[in-house]
Amino acid sequence: MRVKTKVLSALFSTLLIGTAGLILGTFDEGRMPSIGDFGFVMMVMVLTAIGNFVYGIPVSFLSDWVSNKVPSFRFIIAAFIHLFMAVVTFVAIQGLYLFAVIAAVFFFIAEEWQHRKLRTFRVKIAIGNALVLFALLFGIWELPKLEIAEKTPVSQLHTTEKTNRTYVIPEGYEGTIVVLYNMPGEEELKKENDRDVVSLHIAEQVYTYVGDVVQYAEARTSSDRTEGEVTDTYYYSDEKGERIAIDEECIYRGIAGDVGPYEENAEYEILQVTQTYCGFDFMRYGSEVYERQEEKIMSELFTVEE
After folding, report:
1. CA–CA distance from 265 to each of 17, 165, 201, 223, 259 (Å)?
2. Within this chain, do residues 106 and 176 fall inside the same structural domain, yes or no?
3. CB of 249 closer than 8 Å to CB of 205
4. Measuring CA to CA, how many Å separate 138 from each of 75, 150, 179, 185?
């Protein structure tokens, strides 16, 4: 019987993850789902099912074994074990651990629902458990903020240096931004009030043999990429050069690294800018739409021709 309930909980969690992914990933963008969306959702469901059956069910048995030893706090201990073990997956799957947390929540809800007739309901205990569970979920929700801090090397966390860059972006542009530093033959960044001005322009990159083109915002400079406390500002600029400030929640700071095919010391950084998806989630994760654009750019731009 216990195995059956675990299997049903795993299936319930998998189906909910797939359904939620389809709804949030398509209707939120104001369009109907396509065949590609269903294919992506199926892939997510397969991966979720593997996680639920290979990892989730053993964790649930562990939860039962531990929590049943303390009946008065069974609910909160079981919830903590499910959530904690889901967060631990961050070590292996990084930012995707949030999917594991959501799957664990669905799994746990299904477990509790199937055993609802066996539980004794007490108002005080229920309220206390609910408050503690809310605190756990809130803490997990706030964890991704650490990912933003992790993008800054530890050596920079206690430094007095500041990045002091001003990014000037063509008016109305949304999407991926690529900045290349230490590029031989390029001009140095101009200075405005002790700030480096990164002036971006719209560039094109061919990414298929049949000549398909992707547009993106790019800047190349021979200047170094400054590091330290991030104090950057972002502006849209029209044809007359007038600037409009861009809110930080409309900017996603992506990856940075060595360019490779060019000079040994050349570096790059990737950002995203939006007017459509502004918010803390965008500032934290960026947009999958722009990530696909980024993949097309990176795969060609940093490929060495033989």
Report:
1. 44, 20, 23, 11, 8
2. no
3. no
4. 18, 20, 36, 50
| Residues 167 and 224 occupy one common structural domain | yes
Task: Give the Cα separation of 292 and 282 in Å (integer).
Answer: 15
Lay out the sheet containing 267-273: strands in order across: 201-206, 213-220, 175-181, 267-273, 251-258
Q: Residue 176: enclosing H or E segment and its boundaries?
A: strand 175-181
CA torsion 270-275-279-282 (nearest 10°) is -30
Domain count, the chain: 2
Task: Quote the CA–CA distance of 5 and 84 in Å, as a whole number.
Answer: 21
Please write down the HEC assignment for all residues of 210-258.
CCCEEEEEEEECCCCCCCCECCCEEEEECCCCCEEECCHHHEEEEEEEE
Given this model, what pLDDT does residue 294 score?
85
**Tokens 């966390």 sit on residue:** 157
Percent of the chain with pLDDT over 70: 72
**Which residues in 15-107 belong to E strands, given as ranges?**
none
Read off the amino acid at residue 117.
K
* CB burial of residue 248 (10 Å; 0-12, 13-18, 19+): middle
* Residue 258: CB atoms within 10 Å: 14
Q: What is the pLDDT of residue 154?
A: 45
Length of the chain: 306
- 127 φ, ψ to 5°? -65, -45
Domain extent at residue 236: 155-301
186: helix, strand or coil: coil
Segments in the chain below pLDDT 50: 146, 148-158, 304-306
Cα gap 184→263, rounded to integer Å = 7
pLDDT at 89: 77
**Single-letter code of the amino acid located at 288:** E
10 Å CB burial of residue 151 (0-12, 13-18, 19+) is exposed
> What distance lies between CA 167 and its chain's CA centroid?
22
pTM for the structure as a whole? 0.52
Amino acid code (one letter) for 236: Y
Query: Is 150 contained in some domain?
Result: no
149 within a domain of the structure (yes/no): no
